[in-house]
Design goal:
Layout lengths: L10 E5 L2 E7 L5 E5 L13 E3 L2 E3 L6 E2 L5 E3 L17 E7 L2 E5 L21 E8 L3 H8 L5 H4 L5 H9 L3 E8 L3 E6 L14 E6 L3 E6 L6 E9 L2 E9 L8 E3 L5 H18 L13 H14 L3 H4 L6 E7 L1
Parallel strand pairs: 10-17
Antiparallel strand pairs: 1-2, 2-3, 3-8, 4-5, 5-6, 6-7, 8-9, 10-16, 11-12, 11-18, 12-13, 13-14, 14-15, 15-16
Helix pairs in contact: 1-5
The chain binds FE2/S2 (inorganic) cluster and fe (ii) ion (FE2).
Length: 322
Amino acid sequence: MPSSRLGGKPVACSLLEQDLVLFRDRNSQPHALLDRCAHRGVRLSLGSVVDGTLRCRYHGWRFGGDGRCVQIPSLPSDASIRANVGVPAFRCLEQDGYVWVWIGAEPPQPDTPSTIAHFHRYRWKQGTMLFACSFVSAIENSLDWCHAAFTHPWTHPHWFASKLHGIRDQPYECRVTEHGLVVFAPVTKDAAAAVPAGALKIDFTLPDRIAFCVGSDDPLIVLRFVPVNPAACRLEWLARRTLPLGPRIRWSHRTPTVFAQDRKVLESAQEWYDRGDPNFERSVEADAASLLVRRVIALAAEGRWEASRRHLHQRRIVNVRA
Ligand code: FES
Ligand SMILES: [Fe+2]
């Protein structure tokens, strides 16, 4: 949940088919509860925040950040509330412009989300878009070196480059990292060398983060494709602002055209995957990054990332027409 979207009202939010409601208490601390009132199931996100508690819109029951019911207005004044009246509450923390919720039964590993390099040095805009496609396809698209000249008229540097110089051979490099993989150009000559300082770098961090960096490790754009269900995800985007003015993070209602262009092609393909036979797919060498990130996500989902990453192809140079 983007920090700039969570103010004095409760906000509904879905994650892996769980419907949640988030709100802030009196100290501005975020809390996440199941979006279902313990009384008659009304969505708590329809209610309001009163004195740091969440009040249901139907009969006014109130719940604290730990999910316990703290007030039932229809009870006689001398009656007490049973201890087992409440809604499930989830672990929650705020970091680098987002409120993070952990819905797993076991504690998270690692116990905090990955950070953004020098986040507090910059000012940011953030926004949300729903994509009716799997989060894996959206991540593959973000690492795909060849689509921009066709999918992104007037919005993408590669489209302008292709108009100026035509479609050209362009080698890119793909490297497995501790936390996912990076795709970058220009390629390095030395297999063990670091990513060149001036490179355009697209950094994928498990489970769902893409960072675009140009010339440094401080990202210009950070995308997260949060899985809502197997066939839909929510893009949470964060873009660095050029002028150092105004609030640190500003909420944007705009739908950036470049993301809408990706959404259009991805949603049209998802319809075929939903029909259940992915064997129609054919790939070429240029799809190396897409195929590799698929593998990385699959290994992580099976809990085998740490054990397997050393055996993955560590470095690959791919020559593409882009
Ligand atoms: S349904 Fe929430 S108070 Fe009755
Ligand atoms: Fe794209």
